[in-house]
Amino acid sequence: MISSKPTDSRSTGAAVAFRGVSVAYPGAAAPAVRDVDLAIGGGTFAVLLGPSGCGKSTLVRTINRLVEPTSGTVLIDGADARERDATDLRRGIGYVIQAVGLFPHYTVAQNVGVVPSLLGWDRARIARRVDELLALVRLEPARYRDRKPRELSGGEAQRVGVARALAAEPRVLLMDEPFAAVDAIVRASLQDEIARVHRELRTTIVFVTHDVDEALRLADRVVVMNAGRVVQTAAPDDLLRAPADDFVRDLVGVDAQTRRLASERPLIER
Ligand SMILES: Nc1ncnc2c1ncn2[C@@H]1O[C@H](COP(=O)(O)OP(=O)(O)OP(=O)(O)O)[C@@H](O)[C@H]1O
Ligand SMILES: [Mg+2]
């Protein structure tokens, strides 16, 4: 069954845990994130699912400290994220967002090599790593490495964004609606790629979507949020079989039974 993948003992991903994390933006009527307790095991593919404005992006950004919790603690491999230098922390955490944000004047290779360059890797090592990553996201290095972002399709640009986020071998990869802006066919192929990359690298992935099918397809653990709170954390099958409340039941939809049947066939070979 696709959701019951055992924890891999070779896992290189870091564990991420939230202890009583709340975030209140200044002047907001209600906190964006409320008292979240959540543990994401090293190497887990976790997907945050929930309606617009429920706090998914805010929660994800507390991991790389683009947002600081108002109260509570974020732990990465058991260590308080606040005690790490923020820049240093961010170089060790890949981050992919919907608007890819490639540097327009850099080539594909320069974009992918940004963090390794900042880390002072030598040129030959960066070049090797860039080619390895382009191959990993199925962009033939010889064809793509010298192109500029404007010479890429939307789906190719997203692949470069994923390669860039993976460049310095991050132990945690944050992906905030990374495939929302591409069409359904490209999206399905990008989903296949990220599932394969996860299988190969065993990095911890925290992926945000409001697409239920995308969540069920990719996740080891689905984390359902509503109005700043985590309302259920479960493997996809368990979410469909036993939604915690009416909100989750409505979210996964009336055709949950159909989805459950479909999920019993391997959508993605794992
Ligand atoms: N920088 C900010 N300052 C003030 N309020 C913010 C800020 N960022 C987000 N918010 C508010 O916090 C709440 C949660 O926002 P967040 O972006 O985390 O939601 P989301 O679940 O990612 O939504 P979406 O699916 O639309 O991306 C929303 O009410 C939003 O308006
Ligand atoms: Mg968001």
Automatic annotation (TrEMBL):
InterPro entries with a match to the protein in the record: AAA+_ATPase, ABC_transporter-like_ATP-bd, ABC_transporter-like_CS, P-loop_NTPase
- Domain (ABC transporter) spans 18-252
Say yes or no: keyword Mitochondrion present.
no
- Enzyme nomenclature, EC number: 7.6.2.9
What's a single GO MF annotation on this record? ATP hydrolysis activity
User: PANTHER family, per this entry?
Assistant: OSMOPROTECTANT IMPORT ATP-BINDING PROTEIN OSMV
Source species of the chain: Vulcanimicrobium alpinum
Q: Which SMART domains match?
A: AAA
State the UniProt keywords alphabetically: ATP-binding, Nucleotide-binding, Transport
Q: What is the lineage of its organism?
A: Bacteria, Bacillati, Vulcanimicrobiota, Vulcanimicrobiia, Vulcanimicrobiales
Pfam families membership: ABC_tran
Q: Which family, according to UniProt? A: Belongs to the ABC transporter superfamily.
Q: What class of enzyme is it?
A: translocase
Q: Please identify the protein, giving its name as recorded.
A: ABC-type quaternary amine transporter
